[in-house]
Each structure stands twice: as structure tokens, then as C-alpha cells.
Amino acid sequence: MVALQQKGLTEKTRELEEASEELTTLEEGRQHLLRFLAIASHDLKAPLSAVQSYIQLMLGGFSGELTDKQRQMLERSSIRITEQLELISDLLDISRIEGGQIVKEMEEMSLSQVVDDSVENVRAMATDKSIKLGTKMPASLPKLKASGVRLKQAITNLLVNAIKFTPENGEVLLRITEQNGDIYTEVLDTGVGISAEELPKIFDDFYRGVDREKAGSGLGLSIVKRVVEAHGGKIWAESPNPEDKKGRGSKFTFTLPKSLVIAGKKRNRNTGIRSQET
User: Fold this and answer.
1) Of 48, 179, 229, 261, which has the fewest Cβ atoms less than 10 A away?
2) In which domain, by residue range, is 6 found?
3) In what side-by-side order are the strands of the sheet with 182-189?
4) pTM (2 d.p.)
């Protein structure tokens, strides 16, 4: 009996060791892939940027007057290069996030400033479509130990996504609340919404949905998910927007855990609510 138990224990130990070796091999492979991705993306970005610069010079008349056909061809090329540069930037961001860059970027930061900067990043885009862009949050938010650069990227990506899929004269709202110490960031819109079939896939890499012309690289929302989870938070989407009386749009929510709040620098709960619309 003892011998059988010993044999079973030995087999289990061997299985665990084999599983551990497999995990180590997979992690090493992932790290090699991330390094390759970072190097390849960086090496591709420089020449494409140079080509884009030359195209802009030609469109500006540097090499002489262009025919309508030449201008049309250059403009199309410029659009495609811009799309590829955006894709490369997204791939670089993913490699940095997956490589643990966010941990190195963690520092005391102002969430209020991140919100203001994110809104400024998309204000012109909203104005071009006559979209009412609003914010609603406490007059003073707590200081966090987080990556301000990445959180601004996450919020900006969500706002860009909302504006992109909201028709002219629609509404987009960015709302920040504090619940049981956790920070909730919500982006609500009156846009076209997301189908039940698409909803589970929207945070997947390279998922572009049905309307591919508006979808970009298909990495924007997956980057948001990575940023949020790297901070210990959660993210989800609802569609239609449960707060829209006409059953329109979508609502994206992500949380940041209270463990990120810097002790002694919480806001006064009697400071009221700050609202703004443009």
C-alpha cells in the first residue's frame, strides 16, 4: 500500500515538473516573440514615416504641380501609410505592456489631469461630428499610483471608439465615480451599438467588427483591456446602453482597485460633482 502511494506521488511530482518545464518554455517563447515584435515594429516605423514625409512634401507642391490623378494616388497612399503607422504603434504598445512596461511607469499621478487630457485629445473629433462630449466626475479625485500615460491611452481609446460609432449630433459621456473605494470609469454613447454576437469578441486582438471601414487596426480595445488588467482592474461592455431611454448606443466600464489609491490623498467627499459639456 505504501509502495503504491509512493509510486503515485512520484508520478504526480514528475507530471508537475513536466508541466512547469512546459510553462517555462512557453514563457520564454512569448518573451522572444515580444522582443521580435518590438524590434520589427520599430524598424518598420522609421522608413514608413520617411515615405509619409516625402508624400506630404509632394502634396504640398515641393516637386511641382500635380495632376488630379497624381494627387488622388498620393492621398490614397498617405491614408494607407497612416493606417500602417497606427498599426505599428499599437503593436509596439502591446509589446511594451506585455513586457511589463506599465510596472516601470507606475508613479503618483492625477486622475483628474488624465481625464482632462483624454477629453482634449478627442475634442476636435467630437466637434467635427457635432457630438456633445460631456464629462461627469467628483470635483476632486484621489491620487493614484498608476501609469498616467497608459490610463490616458485607455480612456482616449474608449472615447475615440465611442465618437467613431456615434452618428452626428449624438452624445458621448465620460463619467468617473468611486464605489467602495474602487474607481469606476464609464464611457456612454448614443451610437449604433454592438450586436449580441459581437459583444463577447470586441476586446480580442485584431477584431474589427462588421463595419471595418471605421474599425481601425482592431487593437484599440484590446490595448485598453491590457492596460486595465495590468492595473488590477476589470473591463466590460454593455449594449444597448442600459441608461439610454431609446435603447441606443453602448456603455463601456472599467474599474481601478482601491489598492492604487495613495493613502492620505483621498478626496473630500463633500466637494460635490464636476460636470462639463462641449
Assistant:
1) 179
2) 2-99
3) 235-238, 251-256, 182-189, 171-179, 132-138, 273-277
4) 0.75
3-state secondary structure of 155: helix
| CA of residue 57 relative to chain centroid, distance | 32
Assign 128 to helix, strand or coil.
Answer: helix
Q: How many domains does the chain have?
A: 2
How many C-beta atoms surround the C-beta of residue 227 within 10 A? 25
Those residues whose C-beta lies under 8 Å from the C-beta of residue 201, and which sit 6 or more positions away, are 207
Q: Give residue 125's identity as a one-letter amino acid code.
A: M
Predicted confidence (pLDDT) per residue in 180-234, tens digit:
989 999 999 999 999 999 999 999 988 877 665 555 678 899 999 999 999 999 9
pLDDT digits (tens, 9 = 90+) for 149-181: 999 999 999 999 999 999 999 999 999 999 998
Strands (DSSP E) found in the chain:
107-110, 132-138, 143-146, 171-179, 182-189, 235-238, 251-256, 273-277
Per residue, the 3-state secondary structure of 61-117, as one string, reads: CCCCCCCHHHHHHHHHHHHHHHHHHHHHHHHHHHHHHHCCHHHHHCEEEEHHHHHHH
Residue with cell 460636470: 275
Q: Is the dihedral of CA 116, 122, 128, 132 positive or negative?
A: negative
Cβ(57)–Cβ(49) under 8 Å?
Answer: no
One-letter amino acid for residue 12 of the chain: K
Q: Which of 67, 99, 131 represents a domain boundary (last residue)?
A: 99
